[in-house]
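Sample pair:
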Amino acid sequence: MKLDEELLLAYILGVDRVYLRAHNPVLTAEQQSLFDALLARREAGEPLAYLTGKKEFWSMELEVTPDTLIPRPETECLVETALQLLGNENYKVVDLGTGSGAIALALASERSNWQVFATDISENALRVASKNAQRFKLANISFHHGNWCTALPCNDFNLIAANPPYISEQEWPAYEAGLRFEPRHALLADDEGLAAIRQIAIEANAYLQPGGFLVMEHGFRQAEAVRQILAANGYINIHSVVDLSGNQRVSYGQEGN
């Protein structure tokens, strides 16, 4: 049995894959109809996470919908970097463009004494992120509707994290088959994929405490360009971080004024 078929059956029956293999359950007519419909959607390319409404990130099973990007393992590099840059004191940190809340929830779950602020331009995405926070009983997160830093209620943060759109229009044909079901506004950016990164670098200076960190995920070919953007906007101590695939996936700098 194919993996996707097993996962869909397990989802429909509310069991795990071990149970399926041990018991070989027989579906009711209603369950068979639902399975056939979901399998047809999967064969048409719709991501499994949208069919089941869930995706694991940082050992948390998050609700996801077509209003949110599907969290990916490489984004855990961003979480790890943020945790390493700050200690365990009472810091204020931000997750810009939170989507399902993956980054914000991971940070809040690891640092219960941090105040975590999460923003998104999509109200539907914020509803999903808020539900995820409630499910994991994370009371140290607040959610704010708006575009990037302009949604924030204050300007004294120790760290701002973001996984902004960074695929260019020119690159999109190479990615479209695998990403066409996900929200385009969270994937594509002008200026060779750097427009959102540049905007965040400009805005974040005014929202960080002196010495505060801006940490951003980017495309695996964009590290040098992102470092140049950070330097041009007055950030210091600029570095890029390699993910588990060996790609420079995250870059950060400190507010230098």
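The CA atoms of residues 119 and 144 lie 5 Å apart.
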